[in-house]
UniProtKB/TrEMBL annotation:
The lineage of its organism: Eukaryota, Metazoa, Ecdysozoa, Arthropoda, Chelicerata. The keyword rRNA-binding does not apply. It comes from Trichonephila clavata (Joro spider). SUPFAM superfamilies: L domain-like. Belongs to the G-protein coupled receptor 2 family. Adhesion G-protein coupled receptor (ADGR) subfamily. This is Uncharacterized protein. InterPro entries: Adhesion_GPCR_A, Leu-rich_rpt, LRR_dom_sf.
Length: 96
């Protein structure tokens, strides 16, 4: 895959009509809030599977949101959350 380590905060600005975004199997460790401030009204699926996601306080903004699209992503760190689906986490499980 692309070996992406981060997504620039303005990455989706010129792409409001995206339907499927596959960021899977890169080297991403966090889902940055700034990246998703652009409304992606047509988005049906956001795939983050196969990354080295660290589920800590930087992900609190994402937890508990009602997503109008399918989201696939699993925690890799910390060890206590390894293998957990991000969509089922609770904010009090995310520490820094």
């Amino acid at each position: 895959y692309n070996k992406l380590e981060e997504i620039p905060k303005d990455f989706f600005t010129s792409m409001p009509s995206l339907v499927h975004v596959s960021l899977g199997y890169n080297k991403l460790i966090v889902i940055p809030e700034d990246t998703f401030k652009v409304p992606l009204q047509h988005l049906e699926a956001l795939l983050y599977d196969g990354n080295e996601l660290t589920c800590d306080c930087r992900m609190r903004w994402f937890i508990g949101r009602r997503l109008p699209y399918e989201f696939i992503g699993v925690c890799n760190q910390p060890p206590i959350l390894k293998g957990r689906k991000i969509r089922y986490l609770k904010q009090n499980e995310l520490h820094c």
